[in-house]
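Reply to dn_fold:

You asked what the input looked like. This is it:
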Amino acid sequence: MAGVTKEFRIHERSVRARLTPRQYPYWRTISEGCHLGYYRGTRRGTWIARYREAGSAGPAVRKSIGDADDGCEANGSTILNWKQALDAATSWFALQEAGGDGDLDPNMTVADAVIAYIEMRDARETARVGRKARSTASFKLNSHVLADQKLSGVKLCDLNEAHLRSWQRRLSCARGSSKLRVLSELKAALNDIYAEHRKALPRDFPVTVKFGCRPVFADDAASESVARSNQVLPDERIRKILAAVQDQDSDGDNSILAILLAATGARFSQVVRMFVRDVELDRNCVFVPPSRKGRGKKIGPHIRVQVGEDVVAALRSHVENRGPNEPLLLRWRYRQVSPTKWIRVSRAPWKTPSEMQRWWPKQPGFQA
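and this is what came back:
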């Protein structure tokens, strides 16, 4: 008999925000054998559906429904609110009760698994940046897995550890750390396809993936330097860059971003997540969100950084008369109305570093 499931009020957004990140989901019973769960990760929440035939003591089947609308509005496809997640889970439960997904194919290949995984990652990246974009998985897996016919054409039901280890030895990446990243993406793709189509795949498929994806080049990766070479710019060069951007940036959007990057030493992905409330002018300090790098399971506190009077003066016009929950850094969005004319539409937060990079080549005569 299955154990009693502890119920959580995951249908309420405010309750989900107070849940502690952990390795397993918070569940809510939909009907006998059907549960909808909320996995609280360190970066985002995910909806998980779980199905077990009523009265059965066998293992449950799980499926990831989509990301939760914790930090952004639902779009109905990759980011779902409670009602949308419940509807998607209910449809999946109906398929399970009818005998499983209708698209189970025992002839699925490694290429099928990788393509499905790339589509999922690309959709997530597109939703994150607000425009069509390719994920890192797309670049890595297209070049090193789909291009390898010896592995990509293998049926998943025939896949064994020898296939995966031979593929590892054929990897053309120069660095062991680069090989590890590609290997991690492939392992995630195979585990994802098993979670989706476990009824059509061998029961020992996860074991094959686990041992077949153990690095055969671990010594190469371990001998490499973890940190890249020192790339700290001298103060004189930093001042020259900041002076140039302030002189040529009429809106001040690029200059305040450059000033914050120089004053805090933070990554682009950190400063663009700052809000107006993260700036304390009277105390000459800013609070920078923690980096998303690493594998820490806890969300760390914001990092307090003392800044000079010149930085405070530059920030003042960007925080005065604004609400505390507004994004600190904004930029103009443009819309093309003719082949040669673009008009300003609205101001919105920064999304990717390429938005800043595109501005610099347009400044004539500037060399850092």
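The mean pLDDT is 83.
Hope that clears it up.
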